[in-house]
Amino acid sequence: MELIPFPSTPLSWLRKVALSWSSFNKGGIFLLDLGKVMIQWNGPKTSISEKSRALTLTCSLRDRERGGRAQIGVVDDENEAVDLMRIMEAVLGHSVCEKGTDLVVQELATRPLTQDLLQEDGCYLLDQGGFKIYMWQGRKSSPQEKKAAFSRAMGFIQAKGYPNYTNVEVVNDSAESTAFQQLFRTWSKELDRKNHRGKSKQLQVKLDVGKLHSQPELAAQLRMVDNGSGKVEVWCIQDSGRQPVDPKHHGQLCSGNCYLVLYTYQKLGRVQYILYLWQGHQTSTEDIATLNYHAEEMDLTYQGALVQAHVTMGREPPHFLAIFQGQLVVFQGSAGNKGKRPSISGTRLFHMQGTDSHNTSTMEVPARASSLKSSDIFFLITADVCYLWFGKGCNGDQREMAWMVVTVFSGNNKEMVLEGQESPHFWEAIGGRAPYARNRRLAEEVSSVQPRLFECSSHSGCLVLTEVLFFGQEHLDQYDIMLLDTCHEIFLWLGEAAGEWKKEAVAWGQEYLRAHPAERSSATPIVLVKQGHEPATFTGWFVTWDPYKWMSNRSYEEVVEDSLGPGSSISEITAEVHNLQLTPPPSDNKAGHSTLLAFKVSQDGPESDSEPGLGIDGENPSLNPTSSCSSSTANGSLPRERLRHQAVEDLPQGVDPARREFYLSDSDFQDIFGKSKEEFYRMVKWKQQQEKKKLGFF
Hints:
- This protein has 21 helices and 24 strands.
- Helices cover about 30% and strands about 20% of the residues.
- A hairpin with a 2-residue loop joins strand 11 (about 260-265) and strand 12.
- It has a ten-stranded mixed β-sheet, covered by helices on one side. The protein has a seven-stranded mixed β-sheet with strand order 10-14-16-15-17-18-19, covered by helices on one side.
- The protein is an alpha/beta fold.
């Protein structure tokens, strides 16, 4: 595959150039040689004679180098040569030309995108599948580039054939929105600081349990509810049942099994639970189904108090590692009787990563030299000895953790081996020397993407997510399921009255990860959190959190029942109403009608002793407009024009301005709001307010 610019004069020589749109210019002619197809691209500023001469050369090249078999295509007008342009764009990326200037947009990458693609001295266009176009401006890009950013985006939209109303957002360097950041695999403010202010030092933070309980925002950032010193119980899923694992084998898991790990701790004087559902890479779908079944069974036993965290092998959160004190070791194969890990026979190699108790894990890898890495520590287990191989890039904290982890492999003599000082017996045991990764491990970048909260709903089997901006605890309603994306974990908050959709929560989390534009890993932990049992790793993402809010939460039916009071009190009031002798109304009749309204609202049942068709004051309601209005107000059937777009002082007497929509008839309410009153009042408060503002009832 070659790109050849044609000479502007007959005596010039042909030469090859970089296979990129940046090699093109409007005054030149270029040949894209694809073997079976040869495409001649004529710049808009080239003359007829130049095009003719270039075509002669193209035919000559075809006959001489392709045996006359290649097909020739000519691009004079990009808008007309659609098929040829598609071929060129498939090879070179997308190209856009602006009138008056030479604008070239070269495709750099497709998803998943990485933050390091954005260089501070350039401008970049991000196409979100035609849904939205972002134009990112580096802080060191020229004023001319920044000025032309929007017009460039519009030119791209036109070239791609997107609608003219396609949304365009100009994004400035270091001022990116959360929606923009989440289009990238990771986003780190540390990377910005390194690019713009030089290198920054990372501080090691020692865990303080007291701070984790008193500062939930710290617990959320570190993903730790405590230091892992609570009670731990482990079950292995075997033969459609769950077998308890001996405590001395708690941290020794097998990749061919699923495990339930129940962690119990105390917070604010209350016992709290986290149930981890761990899945090995080699587990079957039947085992995963059994794992979920037993998790639900345990949740019923604990009366819905379990926070359920779905964890995949290799993506364990820090707290899961901490409860095993950094001694989590994953063996290849399946567990033996009662979840006991298989006996070590032959030569086995284990890879340890981490520096302390809440970030260290050890996984079995193929026992060959190519598995080694200079940045880490490995345990080579043979029949006679256990070698601790220390790579040149490991530090003192890693070596200290290695001496703690190696105690898992009991019964072998321990021998330390430094990289470059291996004995012949070591290389013989691992199958001989072979190339392996010798690069030092780079410090992991901590993603700083802001959390996003979504309300989940399902219409006709499709998941619909509605983002809640500037979210707080008040946006969590007992009838809803909410999804909180914190980048490293997906939380699904289940309101206690959410109903049957609770069963779909995990599937919704998995669908969210699959559909995410940044191609998020399907192994991202998914945590189910029930109303009233929120861990600090969840509450810490909210600006304020009232831990007692859900303790006094009562259902609508309970509130109504309490507000009515005991039956004897209602009987006494009813008797007083029957025996009440009203004084003659004032001349303007306002007091009398006000009294009539009050009794009609509070008394609903016993018939009045008044004559049929007469009010308590003896008047016929149909002849008294004020009385008629009061009766309609009480029954919730006022005309829509008397309630909609009305100032408070213009509303009918007795109408609560904050609930004016309540006084509509059921048919009018359905017609205006598109739902019944019952459905409307089930919605969260802020959504009700939004609809009322939009429809003129606020």
